[in-house]
Amino acid sequence: MAVYNGEHHLSDAISSVLNQNFTNFEFIIIDDSSTDKTPEIINNFIDNRIKYYQNKANIGQTKSLNIGIK
Predict the structure, then answer these.
(1) Distance between CA 34 and CA 4 in Å, rounded?
(2) Among 5, 9, 20, 56, which one has the highest count of C-beta atoms within 10 angstroms of its own C-beta?
(3) Which of the 8 DSSP states describes residue 21?
(4) What pLDDT, in 10s, does the model give residues 1-38?
């Protein structure tokens, strides 16, 4: 999942993914250099399925998703 300044819906989105019936997955979150509370919200989730990466600069959704694929 790529996110940029998503603080208003991010917690609900992450909770929705983590609460699925299927539990054997890796949840990759790419923060596209957010300037809001996005990093804090992500870091509040303690779940070893979450792999969190932060871009050093805002590069856009498509490039961020491609980073997640790599």
Answers:
(1) 5
(2) 5
(3) S
(4) 999 999 999 999 999 999 999 999 999 999 999 999 99
Task: Quote the CA–CA distance of 19 and 17 in Å, as a whole number.
Answer: 6
- Phi-psi category of 5—alpha, beta or left, where left has phi over 0 and alpha has psi -120 to 50? left
Q: From CA 61, how far away is CA 3, in angstroms rounded?
A: 8
Instruction: Count how many residues are written for the chain.
Output: 70
Instruction: State the pLDDT confidence band at 59, using cuts at 50, 70 and 90.
Output: very high
Tokens of 22: 């299927």
Listed residue (13, 63, 8) closest to 33, CA to CA: 63
Q: CB-hemisphere CA count at 13 Å for 28?
A: 10
Q: What is the pTM of this model?
A: 0.93
